[in-house]
Specification:
By secondary structure, the protein is α+β, with helices and mostly antiparallel strands. 32% of the residues lie in helices and 47% in strands. The protein has four helices and six strands; from the N terminus they run ααββαββββα.
């Protein structure tokens, strides 16, 4: 698979479970995952266990229908950028949100080694208040 196909497989599966399995299949064991400053889950996490604990399990437990809808991809050698929109509803407040976002993926030898998120965090934080 190309780097672009690998990244697309983490977003465009039939279910979020399928997307997660694809991420696990292509993630390097020491993958570095950075959530943007100001975002509720901000920080850099290493390895799928840390990422799952600090990002994915919280998204699954704290939000209803938290989704990233990709609008377009830009691929160049070892990098793929996906940009689009996050949407969801925060369970504790019942408030929905919509935020523009870009994800930068870096790959090496068919494995994802780095992920970095850029997002309009204010709309997410507003939904949580």
């Amino acid at each position: 698979m190309t780097n672009l196909e690998i990244v697309k497989s983490t977003y465009e599966g039939k279910t979020s479970e399928e997307n997660g399995k694809n991420l696990a299949a292509y993630a390097a064991s020491d993958i570095s995952w950075t959530e943007a400053k100001g975002f509720p889950y901000a920080g850099t996490y290493t390895g799928l266990e840390e990422i799952s604990k600090n990002v994915f399990s919280r998204l699954a437990n704290e939000w209803i229908d938290y989704t990233f809808t990709p609008e377009e991809y830009v691929a160049s050698e070892d990098k793929v950028v996906a940009y689009g929109t996050y949407t969801g509803t925060y369970k504790a407040t019942g408030k929905p949100f919509e935020a523009r976002v870009a994800h930068i993926w870096k790959l090496k030898n068919g494995k994802i080694i780095k992920f970095e998120q850029f997002v309009d965090s204010q709309t997410v934080n507003n939904a949580m208040k």
